[in-house]
Amino acid sequence: MSALPFIPFTRPSFNQETIDAVGEVLRSGWVTSGPKLAEFEATLSDYFGGRPVRCFANGTATMKIALQVAGIGPGDEVITTPISWVATSNVILGVGAKPIFVDIDPRTRNLDLSKIAAAVTPQTKAIMPVYLAGLPVNMDELYAIAKQFNLRVIEDAAQAFGSQWNDKKIGAFGDLVSFSFQANKNLSTVEGGCLVLNNEKEALLAEKLRLQGLTRQGMDGMDVEILGGKDNLTDLNAAIGLHQLKQLPSYQIRRTNLARQYFDAFRAKLKSAGLEHLQLELPVENFTDTNWHMFQVVLPLEQLNVDRAQVMTELKELGIGTGVHYPAITGFSLYKNLGYQASDTPVAQRIGRSILTLPLFPGMADEDIGRVVEALVNILQQHAKK
Ligand SMILES: *Cc1c(COP(=O)(O)O)cnc(C)c1O
Asked: What angle do CA 184, 96, 135 make, to 5 degrees?
């Protein structure tokens, strides 16, 4: 075991102001959805250029409600990626629709947009892209394809809060855009999510869907016309979110700076170790669009005589936490039993087996980057096939 402090793959940052704001809500006499939620939604709407925004209990509920707002249900097909948190395709199944997995681009690890057209059928109603690690897909191309085939787009932007496309914020344009505020995300309300919608009619429907389908009429009247769930975000979470929004720009600068250091350190260390022939795949070197939610490498497993689990174990012994985001969804029993085959999306299968998330979070120290890179490259060197 390492004598140095353990570096987790991520850790949320909440400042004293945020902690105080939580105390204030607890003392206020109203702790569930109320004035803080309204303030958070209005602030988010400003952030997204005035588009309507509604918040939900988590990112999964947000995506489910997005699908419901888009009218997607039994008999419909939704095109998505196999490399995501399983929530993405679970919500498609949850509304009774069918996920259609299209393979990924090995460079971006996101949907390969050039493969979408071939997957479209008369049943296709929507595309659900995922911006893995915060890197958006080519948004011009995405919306051109959606227009060509008359499809809705439900963006799983869970990891992309603060990301951009051509100087426009992800969420400030497009169709339905879903974010998660789960503990590990760049902006966290502990748990939570928000949906950016097209108009007030959709926003009103989303409000009903998150609270039992309820419509209020006058001072004491109520009616239920549609079936809704219980997916509201509380004022406690909203108070945290309001403070996280203030801190986000400084966090963003720090994440970007750490990512740059990773690239420099990997290049230097691979060279000095004489390992430039190793096909260790680094992320797309993008310093304009991505929010650097994660820094992920793809291990050159063909050139190693160990698997990813062994690499992770050895890193852990050196005090370094890593994560797997994500194994291909098509490999899970539920999906195999539904007839999906991992071999239909071979790039996703390979990346899902070999992708590794390295530590990256605003509170990380510069020295930590050197420690992580040194440790990983040494492990690769030890296990490289001769
Ligand atoms: C976090 C995440 C979700 C789900 O969000 P929750 O808030 O955990 O429900 C969905 N998709 C992706 C890609 C995510 O990273």
From this structure: 35
